[in-house]
Design goal:
The chain is α/β, with parallel strands linked by helices and about 190 residues long. A six-stranded parallel sheet has the order 3-2-1-4-5-6, sandwiched between helices. Helix 4 runs parallel beside helix 6. The longest helix has 15 residues. It is globular. The termini are far apart.
């Protein structure tokens, strides 16, 4: 069984995430495509801006739109920081003898040497490295380059635009935008 793991804060999940997921899924055709929202990233000091429940709802809306994928909440359920090494051990236990590919952006590849227990990770899984900023990548094994057209969409920018009352049309799937607006996520907090 081949599994692709796509982790991230997904705060919120946006069209850039959906585009990457779709292109990688269509190219590799895995048996399972798992979206794994991060709990507390060891590389970020802040926690997600909205509750796990809201992030999970938006991811599920994206999965419904894409018509593939599933959510695994392992990392959100962990206390403290989430490490990819522990996630891989969990997935390898859950799906015996699976062939695991981890989907990351080139920005993560550039700092991969800082990842906890990298040598063990690379012995247990390969990586699909999405190239959004370079013409061509030459990577060492077990890193697989995957080039996509550049799409500059940022969850940070989306949160700021919503906070400032600006449009986010074409940056989010319509259902995700509707959910954010309905739940008043990322908006400026009104004082009483």
């Amino acid at each position: 069984m081949e599994i692709i793991l796509y982790g991230g804060s997904f705060d919120p999940i946006h069209i850039g995430h959906a585009f990457v997921a779709n292109e990688v899924f269509q190219q590799f055709k895995p048996d399972k495509f798992i979206f794994m929202p991060a709990g507390q990233s060891p590389h970020k000091n802040s926690k997600p801006n909205v509750s796990d429940e809201h992030r999970l709802h938006m991811i599920q809306q994206t999965i419904d739109y894409l018509q593939f994928g599933e959510i695994d909440t392992f990392e959100i359920e962990q206390a403290g920081k989430s490490y990819t090494y522990h996630t891989i051990l969990y997935l390898k236990e859950k799906y015996k003898n699976c062939k695991l590919k981890i989907l990351i952006g080139y920005d993560q590849y550039e700092v991969i040497d800082k990842w906890y227990n990298l040598e063990a990770i690379t012995s247990l899984a390969s990586f699909i490295v999405v190239n959004r900023s370079r013409d061509e990548l030459t990577l060492r094994e077990p890193f697989i380059p995957f080039t996509l057209p550049r799409m500059d969409v940022s969850a940070t920018d989306i949160r700021m635009r919503i906070h400032n009352g600006q449009s986010v049309k074409c940056l989010l799937l319509a259902d995700v935008e509707h959910y954010i607006r309905e739940e008043h996520l990322y908006e400026e907090k009104k004082s009483d």
